[in-house]
Description:
Layout: H1 2-10, E1 18-23, E2 35-42, H2 45-58, E3 62-65, E4 71-73, E5 78-85, E6 92-93, E7 105-110, H3 115-124, E8 127-128, H4 140-146, E9 149-150, E10 153-154, E11 159-165, E12 172-176, H5 188-192, E13 195-205, H6 208-225, E14 232-235, H7 245-251, E15 258-259, E16 262-264, E17 271-274, H8 280-298, E18 307-309
Parallel strand pairs: 2-5, 3-5, 4-18
Antiparallel strand pairs: 1-2, 6-7, 7-13, 8-13, 9-10, 11-12, 11-13, 14-17, 15-16, 16-17
This protein binds flavin-adenine dinucleotide (FAD).
Amino acid sequence: MTDIKQKIMALRIPEERILENEPLSGHTTFRIGGPAELLVRAATEEELSALLGLLTSEGIQHMLMGNGSNILFSDEGYDGVVILLDGDFMKLELPDQSGAPENRTVIRAGSAVRLSRLSAFAAESSLTGLEFACGIPGSTGGAVYMNAGAYGGEMKDTVLSVRLMRADGSETFTRDAEHMDFGYRHSAVQDEGLIVLSADFALEKGDRDAIKASMAELNRKRNAKQPVEFPSAGSTFKRPSGGYAAALIQDSGLKGFSVGGAQVSEKHSGFVINAGGATCRDVVTLMEKVRDKVLEDSGIRLEPEVRIIGRDGTELNERF
Ligand SMILES: Cc1cc2nc3c(=O)[nH]c(=O)nc-3n(C[C@H](O)[C@H](O)[C@H](O)COP(=O)(O)OP(=O)(O)OC[C@H]3O[C@@H](n4cnc5c(N)ncnc54)[C@H](O)[C@@H]3O)c2cc1C
């Protein structure tokens, strides 16, 4: 990796933005994960494109990370390069409105913009539609990737278009929302290995105080129901057809069930929390036990919502 570090520096990415053997536990809301061989922060599209081109041509394993709020990394870490976005990717603005749909105002958010900041900006601009997202601790890029949603809203309801980059950095292009294949916790970004650079949201005019009051109420509900005081990756399992993961887990008597430092939250059975010193192995073992017991009791197979990333970069969700 020293060799690759030199090559990355030759792309004019400053050394202070290239971290070696960086513990991923410090970059994920689960507070779990061994070291990434390299963690690199790209601040412009040019840097990102050059970096992806280099890593692709050198055959170096790599992946994008947003705010790390839906990722479970291996205890052994990640044998490759984890890419974080900042700088230009933090831009949040009201762009030229000539392409805005009738009676809508467009907000443009860089992929590193947190949803809390995005929804607060919309509220300040008296624009409604993103209240649901105010308490989701992800980035715009990660939320588009996941089609994140809460309280009856989803990203797809307000996304107008997404600016994307090919996985090898060779091309950037804009795609309208209707071609993003948005579904429940799904988008085309997942299938095509694309990189989200920014997203445009089309929002309706609303009353600023009412929007803010609604966001405060949603956050109050979230704090009351979810174990926000513990590290986690949010809902561990997807909502299965025919039920709610939390209810199925509770019905199987698994509330509070633990393996090592990983525990099914006492406050919300849909969350596996890091109750203290949990390893990835603890969480995965717990998830397997929960999946098996729920399957035995209800006939419903739970699938992980959290992205489980192996040391060799394999995403283990499909095998779960
Ligand atoms: C306490 C808590 C509550 C939560 N509540 C909710 C909720 O109500 N609703 C909900 O939907 N989710 C919820 N989540 C989960 C999580 O916040 C969302 O899935 C969020 O969208 C993930 O965004 P992120 O930036 O953290 O992505 P990450 O976890 O960093 O990454 C998730 C996936 O997206 C990919 N990715 C990230 N950025 C990009 C990019 N720019 N381009 C391409 N791929 C990218 C990554 O490679 C990874 O595969 C919660 C999590 C926590 C910890």
